Amino acid sequence: MSDSSTEPLDTQAREEDYELSPRQVMAITYAVERGDAEALAELLEPMHPADIADLLEQINAFDRGRLVRLMGDEFSGEILSELDDALRDRIIPLLPKTVLEDAVRELDSDDLVDLVEDLDAPEAILDALDDRDRAAVESALAYPEGSAGRLMQREVVMAPEHWTVGDAIDHMRNADHLPDQFYHMVLVDPRLHPIANVTLGRIMGAPRAKLLRDIAEEVFEVISVTQDEGDVAYAFNQYHLISAPVVDEDGRLVGVITIDDAMAVLDAEHEEDMLLMAGVSESSLSDSVADTVRARLPWLFAALAAGIAGAAVISQFDEAISAFVALAILMPIVAAMGGNAGTQTLTVTVRALATRDLTRANIMRVIRREFLVGLLNGTVFATVMGGLAAVWFDMPELGLIMAAALIINMLIAGLVGTMVPYVLDKLGADPALASGTFVATTTDMMGFFAFLGLASLVLL
Amino acid sequence: MSDSSTEPLDTQAREEDYELSPRQVMAITYAVERGDAEALAELLEPMHPADIADLLEQINAFDRGRLVRLMGDEFSGEILSELDDALRDRIIPLLPKTVLEDAVRELDSDDLVDLVEDLDAPEAILDALDDRDRAAVESALAYPEGSAGRLMQREVVMAPEHWTVGDAIDHMRNADHLPDQFYHMVLVDPRLHPIANVTLGRIMGAPRAKLLRDIAEEVFEVISVTQDEGDVAYAFNQYHLISAPVVDEDGRLVGVITIDDAMAVLDAEHEEDMLLMAGVSESSLSDSVADTVRARLPWLFAALAAGIAGAAVISQFDEAISAFVALAILMPIVAAMGGNAGTQTLTVTVRALATRDLTRANIMRVIRREFLVGLLNGTVFATVMGGLAAVWFDMPELGLIMAAALIINMLIAGLVGTMVPYVLDKLGADPALASGTFVATTTDMMGFFAFLGLASLVLL
Question: How far apart are CA B122 and CA B144, in angstroms?
Answer without folding.
Answer: 17
